[in-house]
Amino acid sequence: MGEVSYNFWYRNRSFVVVNEAAVAMEFLLSSSLDHNDSTELNFSLANSSLKRFSSVTVDAKSRLVCWLLLTASWEAKFFPHLT
User: Fold this and answer.
1) Residue bearing the bigger pLDDT, 6 or 61
2) DSSP letters of 2-62?
């Protein structure tokens, strides 16, 4: 993702889920980010507004763009030498 600024909403990153099977398939999305972390990561179906989801069905022989919406928050406990 490159450099990340704190308290900024990133919404210009995406990836494509491709279903090459002959039948529709459901895909589950998750992250390893701790739910108690103040940094927020969402999967969205649009980059201009949050349309949050954690599973999506992709039709046979089709694809879907998934947007990553990220807000990185500053937590002093992770950078004690800077406080």
Assistant:
1) 61
2) ----TT-EEEEEEEEEEE-SSS-EEEE----S-TTSSSEEEEES-SSS--B-SEEEE-TTE
DSSP state of 69: E
pLDDT at 24: 97
Please check whether residue 46 is in contact with residue 78, taking contact to mean a CB–CB distance below 8 angstroms: no
**Domain covering 9-82: architecture:** Sandwich (2.60)
DSSP classification of residue 70 = E
Q: What pLDDT, in 10s, does the model give residues 4-31? A: 666 666 778 899 999 999 999 999 998 8
Q: In this structure, what token pair is assigned to residue 59?
A: 């039709």
- pTM metric for this prediction: 0.69
Closest CA to 2 of 76, 80, 50, 70: 70
Which residue ranges make up each domain of the chain? 9-82
